Amino acid sequence: MRAGGLADGDYTLGAQTVTVTNGQAKTADGSLAGSTCSLDSALRNMVQLAHIPEWEAVQMASAIPAEYLGIGDKLGYIKAGQQASFAVVDECFHLTDTFIRGNHIYSVSGDNA
């Protein structure tokens, strides 16, 4: 969802306005409008709440969607020939760094390249 990871407020989802409050996105009539869950949060949920093995959870967030979308030759793996676009997480699956096409574009420490 477009509001994922953003502050509380009003956002456009298709032709509707949704309001995000405390991470919950709802339409004007109060219906759930989708998830604002970040990918690192989803990984934590899979490992901690659903007891999915870490390696399997990482595959579910990387290689499997890349293969499904037909872009597994470019993304989804860390190996020679790939675009080198990936996120680095700590032992608790909190985002620490992001690389896009080999360029270090984000660091939680603020030391961005």
The proportion of strand residues reads 25-35%
The total beta strand count reads: 7
End-to-end separation in angstroms reads 28 Å
What is the count of helical runs? 3
User: Low-confidence spans: pLDDT under 50, at least 5 residues?
Assistant: none
Order of helices and strands: EEEEHHHEEE
- Mean pLDDT across the residues is 90
Instruction: Report the structural category.
Output: alpha+beta
Major beta sheet, strand line-up? 1-2-3-4
Helix content: 10-25%
Task: Give me the Rg, rounded.
Answer: 16 Å
The structural domain count equals 2
Instruction: Give the overall silhouette.
Output: globular
Largest sheet: 4 strands, antiparallel
Short précis:
The chain is of the alpha+beta class and 113 residues long. It has three helices and seven strands. It folds into two domains: 36 residues, no CATH class; 69 residues, no CATH class.
How would you portray this structure in words?
Helix 1 packs antiparallel against helix 2. The protein has three helices and seven strands, in the order E-E-E-E-H-H-H-E-E-E. The mean pLDDT is 90. It starts with 8 loop residues before the first strand and ends in a 6-residue tail after the last strand. By secondary structure, it is of the alpha+beta class.
